[in-house]
Amino acid sequence: MLPNIRAHSLVVARIAELLARALRRRGDEIDVELTVAAALMHDIGKSFCLDNDRNHATLGRDICLRHDLHELGPLVVQHVVLDAESFPQTPLSAKELVYYADKRVNHDQIVSLDQRLVYILDRYGQNDPLRHTAILRNFERCQVIEQAIFAGLDFGPDDLQERLAATPPTWSEAMAATGHTRCEMGACQ
Fold it and tell me: What are phi and psi of 153, to 5 degrees?
């Protein structure tokens, strides 16, 4: 995995973990470890797809399945676009948290959904009205998920950066042992 993709995945995992823990405190049954694992792996196929037309989410799922990570595969494949048949899913699951967390991180920076939408339309929209429509529909789902996530929490979407800075990940010691810094994990600005 390229360093920039790893940095992105670490921040996505930080957000996913923070939200999973907050939802558990709210009473939701969220598998925190599965959520973090899927968030860390969500772009595992991306490096192999940068210079071709392969779908990195599908390749990521295939990599997970090839390595007997059967619980992660279905989450990884849906981090870009949620399966319309499973949306909206209540209660929320790791799948929605990974999907949402990925939409909140542009490169390795936490951004609003609106900021991320502008980037994705510019980067992937290719001035194609059909692509723009599909991207906008996808972000409408993400806005619904954002509302469901933050309903009843004691913080909102705009507070993620501050919360992450104040809350080291539970897996920070393991990451530090591999040479990653707290900044790479989204813990500083």
Answer: -85, 160
